[in-house]
Amino acid sequence: MKNLVGAAILGQSGGPTSVINASAAGVFIEALKQPNITAVYGAKHGVKGILNEEFYDINKEDLKELELLKNTPSSMIGSVRYKLKPLKKDPSDYQRLLEVFRKYNIRYFFYNGGNDSMDTCNKISKFFKSEGYDCNVIGVPKTIDNDLFGTDHTPGYGSAAKYVATTLMELYHDATVYDTPMVTVVEVMGRNAGWLTAAAQLAVAKGQGPDLIYLPEVAFDYDEFYASVAEVVKRKGKAIVVVSEGIKDKDGKYVPEHYTSLSKDSFGHAQLGGTAQILADHIKEQLNVKVRAIEFSLLQRCAAHLASKNDVKEAYMAGVKAVRAAVKGSTDKMVGFERVSSNPYKIKYKLVSLAKAANTEKVVPAEWILPNGKGLTQEYVDYALPLIQGDDKAPLVDGLPRFANLKKILVEKK
Amino acid sequence: MKNLVGAAILGQSGGPTSVINASAAGVFIEALKQPNITAVYGAKHGVKGILNEEFYDINKEDLKELELLKNTPSSMIGSVRYKLKPLKKDPSDYQRLLEVFRKYNIRYFFYNGGNDSMDTCNKISKFFKSEGYDCNVIGVPKTIDNDLFGTDHTPGYGSAAKYVATTLMELYHDATVYDTPMVTVVEVMGRNAGWLTAAAQLAVAKGQGPDLIYLPEVAFDYDEFYASVAEVVKRKGKAIVVVSEGIKDKDGKYVPEHYTSLSKDSFGHAQLGGTAQILADHIKEQLNVKVRAIEFSLLQRCAAHLASKNDVKEAYMAGVKAVRAAVKGSTDKMVGFERVSSNPYKIKYKLVSLAKAANTEKVVPAEWILPNGKGLTQEYVDYALPLIQGDDKAPLVDGLPRFANLKKILVEKK
User: At what residues does the UniProt record annotate the site feature described as Important for catalytic activity (chains A, B) (predicted)?
Assistant: First the structure.
């Protein structure tokens, strides 16, 4: 545990959320207060910005605008999907990072992201240590997928879950408006973990939700699916079905793989999408009913106007706690949440080892999935409800959100 | 002008909006107060409900739930797309309607809808008159398309426009988050009138909007389109393009017509959709960049959580004014808005002849479209901004909207 004096840098990584900037606000505002932190930087496009020596000078920003970051969606300083190669295979990125850290005397590194980003954090931290360079590295969790290990939930999940539940309740009213048969298939993000799709159950709990929910945790069976949809249509005249983009059959094949070969993104994950449309087309063919496929797409991860107040607060505090922990000498940790109680809702902030958080996906527990695989239990509802409480959004100007407007002045290259 | 004593019925027709139920609340709550109105009915699925003698007894509903209708999206009593045949061709529907109206002594008929619904209203009113049956018929305007003639704007437009502008601002932040080239194509509803697509300009006015906007009012030129997108990508690295689902080339061909033959809905309109995806696929092919197609789909017409306060208020008042006008003896009219001033925003309620409102589509005036056809002028922004002002949404319970919950007790058939 070392009390270091030097600059601090924050990087944002992976897919944005409604509250990743709230964590940035927490890191920036807290870091600016710390006497041991001599300068505060924001890496332009995460680790890429460090490699390129491109960082914004946060000391030059107005505090008022940094405060507005709390309600500004997405990644204000730019995100990145960049996977460091294994050190043994190619040490050049690691060496370059160390060179930049030394040059600017960066002693605090905060990285805000999901599994892959925690892995990046961990690798960098290990390398610095092996080279004898003191730098406290703290991960700040973030992902709408809620699949990070070592924390009760992740910032970003509550707001995305609130979007999914609210929008499904609204769609429930819209999709049942005519007296003609109709099937609506809604596709929710989530590659391997069905947490976000599970939020559909919150609408079901209000009696205004979908009829069927399909998570990636349960092997997808086409025959069962079409039969279930047919049964609902026969009984109610219409059906609303929510599917995760990541549903796959017992052999691990995704829905779009029946039709097209999949391209891969730079982390090696399959690029999904189109699942709802494909299923809707097949329902139309089989049942001869009107269908509509709706993909929540990027909307579910950037709808800051529907952010949960608890989520915004926790995202901000995760950033604050990261800085405080680092300044006190912690390193190689990720900020996590421990749930003390659900009713009343109470959490404790804690530090989790990066190694533990990195690259382990936390899926929806089997005991929270209904025996028929098509919905969630009350335990899930009790778990999720506190996370979507309260409203907290940007002030309105002309009826539209007033998002943060940073100057984004790049630090002069040394 | 006759002061009639009898029952009143409201029908909801056409595509739902966030505030069509606010107009229902206005009609119901005001009608319940009127001594000349002996019973208040809500037709189940519009004119179909009248033909089938299926109406809800609004006198049996709780006032508190009727108040909650103001913030409940979609059509609570069920909507319909049903086009009456020309009287000369087939009088059976008209005769059946008259029979039902006589049987229940319905003397006030309110119909909430767009162009087609105003036409339905007008036809029924004319027929009743020719048969000597006294019934005051008042149309209540409604459409997210804002294409109704005889009114400054329509209830439903402001909230949908607010959804489009807010969501595009959020997408602006999300879609520009990586430093890799990317084109996002967003599809907005609007068959022939580009009013809703035009709302993208409100995001542009905030410096957080799309790069290109394509309205159905301007003949779509594929070469120009791909060249414009390429130019933006070259200049900025990414492009956000908003297209109306109704864009068509100089020969009137819609984008999906290049690929599939179109089916027709029961009003004879082409069923659109998929435009954004088709264009995105072609951009990918031509420019070799990552693309994403986003269709706002039903979300743009039922996102009551983003409703404009002005819109909710005006929708409600349109219902109230309809009842008051009918009770005073007006018939064959639609409630319309006349703009007194934009700053400060002030409107006057007026009555427009149904014949004038029916079947005439009001498109975006040519002088409000930029000379290059890819955006809107400040005049449009000045026109639209007052319509999206203020928030007004359902109270939250468990962090989710508490929508109206009607008993929906059907009137016993006579």
Answer: 142
